[in-house]
């Protein structure tokens, strides 16, 4: 019969049967019982020469012992003092199952030894088929000079249900003192009480018996106030705190605290007697005083003689709040609506810094408008009671929004992270998106929350010279390149790219549009030319957007340049509302990209001088014999003929882009070549390249907002001549 008390097993004779082509395999030997296991329930800790107390769990497999009796030896390093072993055998294992072990009896191996280091355990089985478990409590004193892992060694005879092994039952060393603080409180320039500091030994005696067993040093500008402080020993046998007081301040709980060093910056706690079990001490009610002429706002970090070597115990600041960006700025496309911005952080220095009813405003630069209003990002915020009212638009330009503080923060300073902000971006906006913070709540500053890029760039392969008065002049090719995939839209309302020529320049024929790289798809046969006001454009429609940034090539561009176009660059612009590159509205400019495509250098052969006639009271005028229409008729006032400045300037060859109007200053500016002429409504002074010229009349405005001026002043400056025929009331300009 098999003996359950042994790890070896009988061998059953192997045999094989062969029948009907079926092979029965031989029976293998029965497996031996698994080894006993040793584990620590409680690992002790001590200094060299100090006391340890550990608990070990011993387990044997099911049915391994039966009714047998086995022995197991346990020993510890030599020179261990007062080593003892106490057993504990539970009646049941795994709830209600009876224990396989009936009893365990420890006895010294050397019965007469004064300081035994080895015990033999007699283990008696109960006959149960369950597993067996018993516990050993090991006590003693670590040998002097010992350091590191203190181990117990287990030994058993060959064939025993027990096996040899070793187990760390204590760690020996000088130990560590760990320090923590419950919470980081805010204090103002008037000082304040910090939260409890907790000091824990990881083993007995880690706190030396010294005058500075616990040491906390504040930075410059701060000092300790212990008047309401207390030191409490939560546990730790034999730990005794010293008395450093020379006078009685009525608080006996702080007598072990010394704050006399370093002008009050260093706090010390005196220990007279070390602990014999790991101790836990609490420092409560400590205050910090602030010298605001020296103290730096922010975290108050103390240096310690424990772990960690430094820690934040409070945060200093007055009733202020600040702003900063959260994470990286977002990227926006020009000409798009509802483009996301990055997140904005509003952070208080002290609880209640943002007062109820005070306002916070967020303002955008020109050519940006608010779309999505801010929301609090709760997962990244520390609201502490601070709430804001709903955001509202301020003014009519869409650039400012405003909120007010609904409820202030309580107890702790608040931090709000604002998310979900979005803007509409003008087509011509490029660069950083600065958000200016203001209002009556005390917040101010300028934060970059985004960076806008043009959806496309446009380049020209060349910019050849062209002449006025000639048609069919070939210029270089254009390349329109996406900044990112899907930068060019293809929706029903936004699927056209328009390239505008300046006034006076026309497309002799329709250019060719094709995709040079990428997977953008153009609508077949959609290339065309058209007129928008006084400007000509070439266009193409988009069938589908790209998945990789694409480039459109525009070739076969031939121009007709009329005689009104001044010398200098001919600049093409991609612009227009509701196009494949612009879904915005309400902005003053719709230009996405611009590039010089040619340069007017000399007139065409022959007579190229302009001949223009205006008639008093008539909205029709002629330009080189071609009749055109004015939106305001010339008139006579005080025997002077007043003509619309814009039409006269165009007759003088001034490009419309160089005819400027500043509504705020009521000033018109004309630029041609090296001359800059400025005239202000109601002013008798004209500026020519900054020099003042006195006039006997002043410019004035007539409906529908045209600047009117006696024509002679402009003709003289720009080298033209004029003649007035009183009989026909006609002004002729050459």
TrEMBL record:
Top-rank taxon: Bacteria
Recorded protein name is Copper amine oxidase-like N-terminal domain-containing protein
Any single Pfam family the record assigns to this protein = Cu_amine_oxidN1
Q: Which UniProt keywords apply?
A: Signal
| Record InterPro entries | Cu_amine_oxidase-like_N (IPR012854), Mao_N_sf (IPR036582)
Source organism lineage? Bacteria, Bacillati, Bacillota, Clostridia, Eubacteriales
Start and end of every Copper amine oxidase-like N-terminal domain? Answer: 623-733
> What range does the record give for the signal peptide?
1-25
Q: Which organism is it from?
A: Heliobacterium mobile
